[in-house]
């Protein structure tokens, strides 16, 4: 039923190696994805997104914690669960000497209820490349063929690991539309991406990972709401006043003001400018975006690590 949990991850950790070589790629991951939701896993390189997906998909075992997908253990109940899953790995492993159509037909042969091959080639915009061997496809075309393989079995749950990496802007837009259509048809989707506009445009919920842990999560609006807005103005001749609740720093010939209450700060600034006959040139005020949140995370947490002097 819509709203029921489809993916449930509790205190999940994934460790590589053992003894002195032990390395936790994911630590104490907690997340729930409801039926029909599109959940985005974002994060810096090496944050643990793919490692998390692999455990949730049942491709590797959790070191600790538990994972349920459609109420099943993705490793122990793989056989029962597999027909309901569509998986697009970061690197597809299709045979290089087959054509796109042969590869997809072969893949369809492993599914219990596949869509017609030509229909799926059409949906991923690969009809005119269907007789091309996989090894001659461009990076973006190969990515679209991987997506075709992930959706041909009509999955209830779809995992997409960086689905639009290497795609040109038009193909990216088409892929977003296809993902949105799949979501609208009720498929539960979990994706990783480095494209923040992709996350902003597609995700109902997201989690931002850094060094194996989730450091922010919620809807895009919730993640952004916790983050201060920024006002930038060219440095005026008069010293700017103290603006309650705001922080100021000089950046070249500009002053950057960060504030959690942008409307109040902006009002204070404009009133001060009017009283003092100051023209505020280059004035630019903008709410936080996913990009500003994301960029501040690496800064903030790496700084924290340096101060603590210990690895996370
Ligand atoms: N098989 C492995 N053995 C040892 N370490 C691994 C293995 N696979 C991944 N790692 C390490 O685990 C960490 C997390 O990797 P992972 O691929 O999950 O990150 P990611 O967030 O998907 O990164 P990216 O955005 O670069 O794809 C990295 O430091 C990586 O080097």
TrEMBL record:
Alphabetic keyword roster: Antibiotic resistance, ATP-binding, Nucleotide-binding, Transport
CDD domains reported in the protein's UniProt record: ABC_DR_subfamily_A (cd03230)
Keyword Transferase found: no
GO MF annotation: an example: ATP binding
Top-level taxonomic group: Bacteria
Subcellular location: Cell membrane
Domain ABC transporter: 7-236
Record flagged with keyword Transmembrane: no
Topology of the protein relative to the lipid bilayer: Peripheral membrane protein
Name of this chain's protein: ABC transporter ATP-binding protein
Species for this entry: Rhodococcus globerulus
Organism classification: Bacteria, Bacillati, Actinomycetota, Actinomycetes, Mycobacteriales
